[in-house]
Design brief:
With 311 residues, the chain is an alpha/beta fold. The strands form three sheets. It has a seven-stranded mixed beta sheet with strand order 6-7-8-9-11-10-12, with helices on one face. A six-stranded mixed beta sheet has the order 5-4-3-13-14-15, with helices on one face. Strands 1-2 form a two-stranded antiparallel sheet. Helix 3 links the parallel strand 4 and strand 5. It is globular. The relative contact order is 0.19.
């Protein structure tokens, strides 16, 4: 294993060389493969278009079953309807590579909550690849005897400040937080797959200048459920616009912040930081019966860091 640095300072990194070649991309492939992307919606500006193109090129080699779109596909004020032009300028015209014409499984981010959240869920009636319809849900991906359960959470209503700011986030206060948590408890309790991954837009742990109340609410409301069942391998989120891998002492879960697929932000190490980087990009999730890997990919197709779990 090579050594890399945390925040461009070092932790353990995958043996894949950071050159972004097709041969190296193929080496990332497992039995079940998923792409993870979030904080995308910049109407093609900043690095959104080149990263979208890179995702398509890498998909030719990795062959993902689906893409997990974990929030803020639309920035600023979300969308007004299923026919909002932003669906074209933020999504359809940008992620147009043939290999990206696969299922996209979204969750709502805080920016979607500034607009019409029902329109985000209803877009699946318009787009063949938009697999939504629910605010929180679970899907299992099974291939050649390897099973990966992904639990998709609606995290904005779990955070008190969004519920209080009713004019800016009108739909947040309408959601039943306790109902979602009861559903999560039942879902994790019944999960028997090889790997269980929980995704949501907001972090539980992260280095960020954003209001610490967000992380405190996630820790108090969500963390007890994730820890109690002992089967959650990863919690993966977006929102912070950089890459972070955090491992807390005495906690078997790896906490991953996936970087923005358009406009990224600076980052530094914090408590539990294994790796961090200010590069924009996306992640590749690769699973076999005995190992689960999350590869952080920068805008040039280089593997910056690998989060690996083994059985």
């Amino acid at each position: 294993m090579l050594l890399t640095t945390v925040g461009n300072v070092s932790a353990q990194e995958t043996g894949v060389q950071s050159e972004g070649s097709e041969k190296e991309w193929k080496s990332l492939k497992g039995t079940v493969n998923l792409f993870i992307a979030n904080d995308l919606g910049r109407n093609g500006y900043y690095d959104q278009k080149p990263i979208a193109s890179l995702m398509g090129e890498m998909a030719e080699e990795v062959g993902p079953e689906a893409i997990l779109a974990i929030g803020d596909v639309h920035h600023f004020n979300g969308v007004a309807s299923v026919s909002d032009p932003l669906w074209r300028t933020n999504f359809e015209d940008i992620y147009s590579h043939p290999e990206l014409m696969i299922d996209w499984f979204p969750v709502l981010g805080n920016h979607e909550y500034r607009g019409n959240t029902q329109a985000v869920m209803d877009y699946g009636k318009v787009s063949r690849r938009w697999m939504s319809g629910e605010r929180y849900y679970t899907r299992t991906f099974v291939k050649k005897g390897v099973s990966v359960r992904v639990v998709f959470l609606d995290t904005t209503p779990l955070i008190g400040r969004y519920q209080k700011e009713k004019e800016e986030y009108p739909d947040a206060c309408k959601q039943d937080v306790e109902e979602q948590l009861r559903w999560l408890e039942k879902t994790l309790g019944e999960a028997k797959e090889d790997w269980v991954i929980v995704v949501g837009h907001h972090p539980i742990y992260a280095e960020t200048s954003k209001n610490k109340e967000e992380r405190e609410d996630m820790q108090s409301r969500l963390l007890p459920f994730l820890k109690s069942h002992k089967n959650v391998a990863l919690y993966v989120c977006g929102h912070i616009h950089n890459f972070q891998h955090i491992k807390m002492q005495g906690d078997e879960i790896d906490y991953v912040v996936n970087s923005a697929g358009a406009l990224a932000r600076k980052v530094k190490a914090t408590e539990g930081t294994v790796f961090c980087s200010p590069e924009p990009g996306f992640s590749v999730l690769s699973a076999t019966k005995s190992a689960l890997s999350l590869f952080m990919i920068d805008k040039k197709g280089k593997v910056l860091h690998e989060v690996k779990k083994e059985k």
